[in-house]
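Sequence, please.
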């Protein structure tokens, strides 16, 4: 390991910033210069690293950022991010002034919210986007009358400024569904009579941005596709350009032993060796996000797929080796090694979930190594950084 790498365990995630840049540039080119790209970096950029991904996305042509909560926006501001940041989720009206102070754009979810927000805007102007609920059933306005009243209320206020309006599709990644057509029609109906050309108007998430160029208006919120992951398995057949997966996960064998026939492995002694076997121990477990349900799944060691055996522990798991391998052998849990490849979708299938969830569940104690042109640019290790900050 590079001597400048600031972590002291043999498990780490690699984030390929070139892949992030490629995926963003590909969307920009797909739009043909006709739309703004909002890079969605909520949830620590889907587990990839918010600031580093944000920088790569902006360099690649994204125009602004989006997060889920005010705390995430403040974190980016305090790391030096100057571009517009939109908070997509519901924010407390009493947090309006801190959002103004940090130049954060909030989301208005109702007329009532806007009226309360104005009361807390003591100094400066609150910028916000209006959220319309066209069928997601989560947040937003559903009635034209309420929308028009909200817009007029903001126009009459010296402390409120509407900067955009948007909705969210519930099924844009489902090729056989016509629900997106219904939502799009509802969105256009609610927008009727609104002609402010300075507003950002957005309904396209990654799936809609990839599939429906006619439903972009002037902005695409680029989320899962920015990380090189398809919004759904169905869409893999109809992508307008290829996606490059940005995250890989690696560890090293820290111990090797020969287990005699009949020997047991891990909690519950659920695994029994059918013959003499070489067993490798890996320093990664469910506290890192490598969940217990991944027992009997495969990883890549020495360029070969090998099986996890026994129950996955909090901090460790064991693999059955085809032959004795040296301690320190690199093992790939997600990503490519030699001719073998384990994509995030494979892990999602084993866990019976969606690919979005896999990078998000990798815990903060897994260091993130950021790469450019296959060279280490930076390493983020929240455990040591937090400890250092507390000492200061």
């Amino acid at each position: 390991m590079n001597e400048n790498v600031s972590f002291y365990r043999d498990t780490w995630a690699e984030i390929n910033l070139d892949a992030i840049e490629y995926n963003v540039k590909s969307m920009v080119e797909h739009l043909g210069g006709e739309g703004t790209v909002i890079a969605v970096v909520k949830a620590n950029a889907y587990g990839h690293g918010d600031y580093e991904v944000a920088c790569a996305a902006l360099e690649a042509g994204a125009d602004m950022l989006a997060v889920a909560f005010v705390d995430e926006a403040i974190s980016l501001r305090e790391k030096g991010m100057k571009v517009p940041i939109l908070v997509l989720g519901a924010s407390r009206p009493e947090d309006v002034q801190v959002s103004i102070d940090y130049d954060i754009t909030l989301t208005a979810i109702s007329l009532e919210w806007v009226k309360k927000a104005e009361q807390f805007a003591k100094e400066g102007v609150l910028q916000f986007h209006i959220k319309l609920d066209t069928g997601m059933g989560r947040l937003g306005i559903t009635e034209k009358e309420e929308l028009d009243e909200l817009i007029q209320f903001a126009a009459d206020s010296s402390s409120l400024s509407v900067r955009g309006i948007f909705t969210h599709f519930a099924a844009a990644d489902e090729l056989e569904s016509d629900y997106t057509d219904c939502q799009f029609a509802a969105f256009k109906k609610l927008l009727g009579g609104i002609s402010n050309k300075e507003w950002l108007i957005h309904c396209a998430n990654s799936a809609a941005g990839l599939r429906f160029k006619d439903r972009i208006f002037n902005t695409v919120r680029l989320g899962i596709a920015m990380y090189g992951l398809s919004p759904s398995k169905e869409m893999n057949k109809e992508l307008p350009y290829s996606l490059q997966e940005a995250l890989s996960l690696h560890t090293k064998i820290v111990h090797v032993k020969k287990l005699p026939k009949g020997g047991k492995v891990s909690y519950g002694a659920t695994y029994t060796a059918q013959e003499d076997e070489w067993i490798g121990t890996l320093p990664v477990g469910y506290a890192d996000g490598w969940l217990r349900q991944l027992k009997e799944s495969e990883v890549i060691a020495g360029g070969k797929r090998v099986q996890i055996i026994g129950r996955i522990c909090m901090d460790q798991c064991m693999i059955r080796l085809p032959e004795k391998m040296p301690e320190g052998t690199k093992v790939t849990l997600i990503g490519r090694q030699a001719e073998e490849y384990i994509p995030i979708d494979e892990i999602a299938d084993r866990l019976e979930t969606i690919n979005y969830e896999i990078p998000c569940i990798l815990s903060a104690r897994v260091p993130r190594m950021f790469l450019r042109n296959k060279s280490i640019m930076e390493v983020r290790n929240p455990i040591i950084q937090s400890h250092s900050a507390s000492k200061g």
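Residues 17-31 form the longest helix (15 residues).
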